Amino acid sequence: MICPNCGEKIPDNSLVCPVCSVSVKKQPEPETPVQKEPQTAVAKGPALPMKWHKFLVSFALWVEILFLIIAAFLTVIITALSTDPDTVAYYSEYPGVKAINLIYGISLLGCAVLGGFALYCLLKMKKGAPRFYIWFLVAATSCSVIYQLLEVIILRLPLFSTEVSYYVTSSGGEGVQVRFSSPVFAFIILAVYILLNYIYYRKRKHMFIY
User: In 3D, which of 144, 128, 140, 126 has the Cα closest to residue 65?
Assistant: First the structure.
């Protein structure tokens, strides 16, 4: 090695230069940095049952998306291409309904696309997948609610309807059967369904980490 003071060559293990008597400090060898192994995503929370999630991604959500696609095409085709005299006369009397049906069919296709994206994210356990699924449910329900309300307004239909039917009992008397129906009940059921899914996936939010 070389003395840093006088520049003379000295033995490698020397602590003092024999020429100029200056202390020679050995330079420490550079430390090689320790390479950290890449960390894999780990769920921060307890592993909860996922039976409903598996049912959704393997069957239920596929059926929902398929139903939306079929309903969209049927709505658009029947509205735009139907030559049935009764249908043509109906749309001639209520032209607003034809426009609503076309918009509704296109909206259903958009909901189907959103549902497909939500399905992909749920299958891959993507971060934010539950939020996309809830958005899909809200969008599909909103389209149906708005469509029904506009149809009720244009056609002047009642929100609540009562159907009374009479029948003969086994004893020969007369019975009365009253049926009470309204699309509002279906919307309430859908709202409860969305709320239950929101609660279910909010508890499992920590499991979607990829």
Answer: 140
pLDDT over 80 at 60, yes or no: yes
Q: What is the 3-state secondary structure (H, E, C) of the chain?
A: CECCCCCCECCCCCCECCCCCCECCCCCCCCCCCCCCCCCCCCCCCCCCCHHHHHHHHHHHHHHHHHHHHHHHHHHHHHHHCCCHHHHHHHHHCHHHHHHHHHHHHHHHHHHHHHHHHHHHHHCCCCCHHHHHHHHHHHHHHHHHHHHHHHHHHHCCCCCEEEEEEEECCCCCEEEEEEEECHHHHHHHHHHHHHHHHHHHHHCHHHCCC
Query: Is 60 exceeded by the pLDDT of residue 42?
Result: no
Token readout for 96 is: 């607003």
- pLDDT tens for 162-202 read 555 555 566 666 655 545 556 778 889 999 999 999 999 99
pTM for the model stands at 0.69
> In the prediction, which pLDDT does 136 show?
98
- Residues with Cβ within 8 Å of residue 21, at least 6 apart in sequence: none
Average pLDDT, the chain: 80
Query: Which pair of structure tokens corresponds to residue 144?
Result: 């149906």
Work out the angle at residue 203's Cα, subtended by the Cα atoms of residues 198 and 206, and round it to the nearest 5 degrees: 115
Is residue 204 a contact partner of residue 130, using CB atoms and an 8 Å limit?
A: yes
CA angle 43, 125, 196 (to 5 degrees): 90
